[in-house]
Amino acid sequence: MKKTILAVAAAAALLSTVAHAENATYAFDPSHTYVTFEISHFGTSTNRGRFDKKEGTAQLDRAAKTGKVDVTIDTTSINTGFDAFNKHLQSADLFDAAKYPTIKFSGDKFTFAGDKVTAISGNLTLLGKTQPVTLKANQFNCYESPMLNKREVCGGDFETTIDRTAFGMNYGLAYGFPKEVRLVIQVEAIKQ
Fold first, then answer.
1. Domain coordinates of the chain in residue numbers?
2. What is the reported pLDDT for 22?
3. Are the C-beta atoms of residues 154 and 191 closer than 8 Å to each other?
4. Which terminus of the chain is more solvent-facing, meaning fewer CB atoms within 10 Å of its CB: N or C?
5. Whole-prediction pTM value?
6. Which phi-psi region, left, alpha or beta, contains residue 146 (left: φ > 0; alpha: ψ -120 to 50)?
7. CATH of domain 23-191
8. Which stretch is the leader sequence (predicted)?
């Protein structure tokens, strides 16, 4: 009887540990995380830029198919490779970095195919306005990093196309610049 009680207690403890261990927290790896955007330039070429400063965390439970992600992007870190263009993008015409130094995405509705995340829905806050956004995962993977002593790393390339006018960014519409901006968040996050 004593062995049975001990066996049941041990099994319950093991199951509790396994169920609890599925929900994990991940911190974004800044050396493998990039936030980029692109917009058509008069239908001739594509203007592209990135934000050099960004941070985020994610919680992921693949067994329960749930998660949560928070991303903060520093608008003062915009980089197109051309200083004059960077300054214009940071001006009140566009990102208004002095007044709105961050862009935020918070998502808590994860869509899965098997154990792979295929989309994350949440809210994007830009220029003080918040709109619902779904980031589609072009690829998602978790692996044991040989560079980090086999710690688990999860991530992928997530993208969406936003209507910038929904956030009040209307500059250039009269010139023919489109409303649509493609946003890509490439992220790798390390299990904590």
1. 23-191
2. 78
3. yes
4. N
5. 0.86
6. alpha
7. 2.40.128.110
8. 1-21
